[in-house]
Amino acid sequence: MTLVFDNLTKRYGANTAIDGVSTRFEPGTIHGIIGPNGAGKSTLINMTAGSYSVTEGSIRLDDRQLDRMKKYQVANAGIGRTYQNIRLFDQMSVLENLEVCFYDRAKSGIVGEVLWPPMARRRAAERRAICMEYLTFFGLEHMADREAGSLPYGRQRMLEIARALAQDPKVLLLDEPAAGLNHQETAELTERLAALRAPGRIIIVVEHDMDLVMTVCDRITVLHHGKLLFEGTPAEVQASHDVQIAYLGTEHDIEDIRTAAQDRRARLGLRTGRHPQ
Ligand SMILES: Nc1ncnc2c1ncn2[C@@H]1O[C@H](COP(=O)(O)OP(=O)(O)OP(=O)(O)O)[C@@H](O)[C@H]1O
């Protein structure tokens, strides 16, 4: 399984947000996408998830051309995602937020469940057990019955990733998963992401938090003004003169990039005020 961008281009009128990007993502890896504000990172994620149309070029998952599909077809082809701004069913319980993902997955057998209640009960118990495994992995098992909207912000972020995973995606797209998280929550997220690396899964993380990216990613793609500026291991990216110039306009080191990212994180986290930790 390989995800391939070939000459991928996105224009918004006269503005070229993604400009001829070609790269590939291998299974078993965590791949970071970084770049200064406005570099095109979210546009890339949204095109891959089928939310935005592609102007030129292609996105392929093995022999399937995703850019020709509708959004739900892209999801069915195995692309799962989270959003920069959390999207949960606030009034449903934490567990129900996961369970609804299984109705998406279970395309067969629904008629059987309706006609034969014992089968429905068995399936419901199985779904619940799997959901509880995901909740345990994300440290949410003791919150299963709480309304999702009442959870502290950091827990909501974890639940969003759990929801994306419950759909068993081949490719998991995470759009700024650490946005609005404090230092300890980010460290926790970093650990959990590392544990999600799996042979049959590609994880792509768009993130400004350099500690997270440099710790957890196997490879990193750096975008600048919509173009692929650099690609390599975390060590290669940190050593790249071009990357430092792109971020800061001058030759500073990765510490300055970290500071710039922290300033941005302080401005994000739309729900932090509502649900303080
Ligand atoms: N829906 C849209 N319509 C028009 N222009 C857009 C739209 N979305 C993004 N853009 C433009 O495309 C460019 C890339 O934006 P994008 O949000 O993808 O960058 P980004 O790297 O994710 O930025 P950030 O780190 O600030 O989230 C920017 O110039 C932005 O103004």
TrEMBL record:
Q: State whether keyword ATP-binding applies.
A: yes
A GO cellular component annotation here is:
plasma membrane
Q: Which GO terms describe its molecular function?
A: ATP binding; ATP hydrolysis activity; L-isoleucine transmembrane transporter activity; L-phenylalanine transmembrane transporter activity; L-valine transmembrane transporter activity
Q: Which UniProt keywords apply?
A: ATP-binding, Nucleotide-binding, Transport
Residue ranges constituting the ABC transporter domain according to the UniProt record: 3-250
- The answer to whether the entry has keyword Transport is yes
Q: Which Gene3D superfamilies match?
A: P-loop containing nucleotide triphosphate hydrolases
Q: What biological process terms from GO does the record include?
A: D-alanine transmembrane transport; L-alanine transport; L-isoleucine import across plasma membrane; L-valine import across plasma membrane
Q: Name one Pfam family in it.
A: BCA_ABC_TP_C
At the top level, the lineage of the source is: Bacteria
Supply the SMART domains for this chain.
Answer: AAA
Protein's UniProt name: ATP-binding cassette domain-containing protein
Instruction: Supply the source organism for this entry.
Output: Pseudooceanicola albus
